[in-house]
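Example 3.2
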Amino acid sequence: MTETVDVVLIGGGIMSATLGTLLHELQPEWKIVAFERLSEVAQESSNPWNNAGTGHAALCELNYMPQGDGPLDPAKAISINEQFQQSRQFWSSLVERGVLDAPSTFINATPHMTFVRGEKDVAYLKARYEVLKKQPLFAGIEYSEDSRVINKWAPLLMQQRRKGEPFAATRVPAGTDVDFGALTHQLFDHLTASGVTLRTNHEVRSLKKQKDGTWLVKYRNRIGRTPNEIKARFVFVGAGGWALKLLQNSGIPEIKGYGVFPIGGQFLKTTNPQVVAQHQAKVYSQASVGAPPMSVPHLDTRVVDGEASLMFGPFATFSPKFLKNGSMLDIVSQVRTHNLLPMLQVAVKNPDLITYLIGELLKNHAKKVDSLRTFMPTAKDEDWTLIDAGQRAQVMKKDPQKGGILQFGTEVVSSADGSIAGLLGASPGASTAVPIMLSLLKSCFPEEYPGWEPELRALIPTFGEQLNTDAARAEESTAATAATLGINV
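Structure, written as tokens:
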């Protein structure tokens, strides 16, 4: 007989690891099986070299507080910060419970900065600072137009900078660099040690709803291609760009109208100790005109396996694959009658994006280092090498007013009965994995959720609260997690 389990997790990234950990803490008796098509977990978007490792808290990312015609609105920035605080609290609880290793193995204190040039952007950054400095979750944000101050914060930004050029920077010392690959590995290590089954080199091929309400999950071992199947009461599809294909295969009506647009990326990387020693920050700026928000240029400190390096980018690339290890037919095989029109409308309405992608594809190594020199005027070609980052499958979907829209965020798609759910989209993704999964638990497990709330509150002390409305509570919470995670500044 076909084995029946409580939960099947598809994909071995930070999302499945987070959901699996939450469910195991809440229902330790449930039987959970996770599938990963590659030989180990965290090899796609969760891999530390496939993302920038920014603990997205809207401290430096301007796209969470865009400049419009009216007054600057901090609501989105505050929301992102609130979500990241939940992730910090969850990780802190897992450190205290011995689930995670020493915090320095996956998170390190790294100031978050924003650096802009030109009178218009300087005026905008100052206005943004004036709004955010009043918000409790942004306490400690600093602003300067003084080259001596900015040089102290990040020397590489100021060396050989042209005189008379308007520039400004903000800095939040309490920022972080996160190795989501290490975090994912540690979460799965704990899960497997606690009885959760992880099947690597196993690819899920189809999902079919059964009359008894369970899902028949057909899969095969990629070594030998042996087919098999399993039944599950609940299925989570956390397979990056592959999630769309599996959700389409499931036949749930909620996926109709969705498509994804794959955008790859590259970063320039240096391990030159003389260069690395001069920069201890993640420095973001404004995206180019017509460029998607995920392309915002930034010069980052990275700490992976205890070794510091610098990364600059991203530079967009294009591949029809939805994953780095996907199929060249992915972009075509997603097409259905219900999503063709929205996807065509996205193509027609975003000519700037197409122009941007073509321009990026034409850049050689020298041109990419030239782009770096807008941040770091002293950059030398020989110090920097190009590395390929992960594929990002940006959501395209129907919109009642616009017909079809391109969405730069994350979105959970679940069936009406809550028996299956999947995650589409990209940034801020990993940084907000905990609140995303909490929202999924609430919508997919309505009967169990009320009984879970006490344990969720134990894991996340401010669960159900808004930190930014209470300055004292915000300070108390951030100080507590900083102490546990070893990221005091």
